[in-house]
Amino acid sequence: MSTRPSTPVSHAGEDMPWEYTEPAQALVKGMKKLMEDGNDLSDFTLVADGGKEWKVHKVVLFMHSDVLYTMSSSPTFIESKTGRAELNDLNGKPLDAQLVDALVRYLYRQDLPLQWQAKREPGWGSICGGHTILTELAEEVEDLNISNGDDDEDGSQPPIPTRLTTPLDELEWPDLRQAAMAHNFEQALEWKWDDCDAHPNHGIDFFLSIAAMADMYNIQPLKALAISHIENYANCDMPSKLETVIDKLCAAEAVPDEVRHAVVEITAWKIGKLHTAEGGGLLERHPEFALEVFKKVVQRENQKMESEKAAAKSRRDAWVIHLARHDNWAVDADYP
């Protein structure tokens, strides 16, 4: 029987009714309060590059990372005696403050906030807003050119309108429509496609580093969260984004196997778009990665063939059963 009250309960002497709070939400609020106001209760310190410090609680480390908790509590580690741990990567290089800040926030809040502000207009359905709006602009410009061409008696294009004087890098999103309608679409495209606002290139480095850090300190949910962000980048509508992900992945000093496998999976699905002259020899630049991708493609093709064989056998078996029920064993003759 549930003990949850069906309606808010009023208590004598209180102006506001008491409201039931879900246990999970209560825990979230408690952890947030501990992170923001619990410095007096902290018993350990995490240190990033440059000496920046974060006061944390061993019990929170215990909840998320056996590695960090052991460092903070085991007598065999000097960190347990000094009460502080200088966090480094696998090469012994101190972790950037941005990474440690994200780590601490995850330990207490279980989220991984973006370190940048994406420019998005309300109502955009696509996660890649830049691709969506520029595609719409391209269609509008194409329609405009066609209609204008039809209006001219000789079928030629009308004179190009006066170009905008405002530099494209100073334009806001609504102004891009004006730029396109002024036949500045190619310039707008060149500027806006320099990067995707929803998936900026520097974000790839950030999430790759987060995944490596989470792997090093054995925080599996954080690693999975970082991988999901990397997958979003690899699936970005901007054609060059997957190439950038692969380049940065192959250039990274330490990358968890799960990250590489995830990107290989996505690349195998998009191999036709990459293995072109426009790809700039992407797979040729990374032969080991390319080999993994081609193995995945072959594996999928084999699985597809096996699945088709199994389906064909299933259909034939069903046909045999059908004929047997009708006392007709001329299977080969009548099998569709």
UniProtKB/TrEMBL annotation:
Ranges for domain BTB: 42-116
Name used for this protein in its record: BTB domain-containing protein
InterPro entries linked: BTB/POZ_dom, SKP1/BTB/POZ_sf
Ranges for region Disordered: 146-166
A Pfam family assignment: BTB
Compositional bias segments (type: Acidic residues): 146-155
